[in-house]
Amino acid sequence: xxxxxxxxxxxxxxxxxxxxxxxxxxxxxxxxxxxxxxxxxxxxxxxxxxxxxxxxxxxxxxxxxxxxxxxxxxxxxxxxxxxxxxxxxxxxxxxxxxxxxxxxxxxxxxxxxxxxxxxxxxxxxxxxxxxxxxxxxxxxxxxxxxxxxxxxxxxxxxxxxxxxxxxxxxxxxxxxxxxxxxxxxxxxxxxxxxxxxxxxxxxxxxxxxxxxxxxxxxxxxxxxxxxxxxxxxxxxxxxxxxxxxxxxxxxxxxxxxxxxxxxxxxxxxxxxxxxxxxxxxxxxxxxxxxxxxxxxxxxxxxxxxxxxxxxxxxxxxxxxxxxxxxxxxxxxxxxxxxxxxxxxxxxxxxxxxxxxxxxxxxxxxxxxxxxxxxxxxxxxxxxxxxxxxxxxxxxxxxxxxxxxxxxxxxxxxxxxxxxxx
Length: 421
Hints:
Blueprint: H1 5-25, H2 30-46, H3 48-65, H4 69-75, H5 79-94, E1 102-107, E2 113-120, E3 123-128, H6 133-144, E4 148-152, H7 158-174, E5 182-184, H8 191-197, E6 205-209, H9 212-221, E7 234-238, H10 244-256, E8 265-271, H11 272-278, H12 281-288, E9 292-295, E10 306-307, E11 321-327, H13 330-340, E12 345-349, H14 353-362, E13 367-370, E14 390-391, E15 399-400, E16 407-414
Parallel strand pairs: 3-4, 3-6, 4-5, 7-8, 7-12, 8-11, 9-10, 9-11, 12-13
Antiparallel strand pairs: 1-2, 2-16, 14-15
Helix pairs in contact: 2-5, 2-7, 3-7, 5-6, 6-7, 10-12
């Protein structure tokens, strides 16, 4: 269905302003961009009470909408999370500017000097749900990489996103950068998303960050290139040579720290050799912590474990629910992950270097981990300051999408009157 004429007109105007702003940002100095980021961080912290008040309105809206506790947690902003947003902007400001970095430099026998140099992509459209902090993260990373950003947050985070965007705009003004460098779509109407997906003259790439339905729609309807952020169907495999204490610590954190984020574990695979020797006491810990554990036939004998259905394998719960299965060795675990995983993040708990190397080489997830909580699947934890999302595709950007991943490159070729024979 076509967007109403009013929405199309709004989006075209936003796109035109973004394209003009991108031309200015492409040559903006590192100092200007970093000044804007630091000023925006200061503005966020100064406005923390106002942001929290707007977030309270969104939380009421989310409850009325029937969001789950885990989804409400994604939406919630408290002082600690607002501080983290500001700190994330400052962290991005301290990073090296990727624009202008020489990726390769060589001379040809014909006298040509060729350099491959990082450049901004242009205009980035970001479509996201629930988490209002994405407004700050996405705006900051696009700016750092010299791109204009068009941000379309979810209807449930409308008020929070507006308050945060106001702080970003203040930062741009303080640095003398165009206000249109970071724009927030001002309407909740979902038709705005459809409009963005076809704005090939105004947007160079779309980054969707949200649930399966959103990403599927973007991939199906977009005429603009997409950096896909698919489901986080995250697995942890407990190898026969796993350390029990590490398994306890990692699994409990990976599920319960924040069950509604894409790095939360959704399926635990236990090697039969480990299970026969030590059982799976970490599952009892999960049950005690309030997690609903849905297990295979073997695990249903454990207290508190309920039967898993076929639909529970390959499911992103984003809640205090986890699936669990006993598997016959590492290759069976790998086969399970290949069948049901989403190429997002998968982990192995093992003290065996060979087993870890086999797991890493045989799987092709964007992030693979050993003896570490999958909740570390985050650009901030990778030292990027922030992220727009975890890209699960294989072209251009993959894994956490930070400022560097939001650049392209061009070739600069110099000669001294060179001609081709």
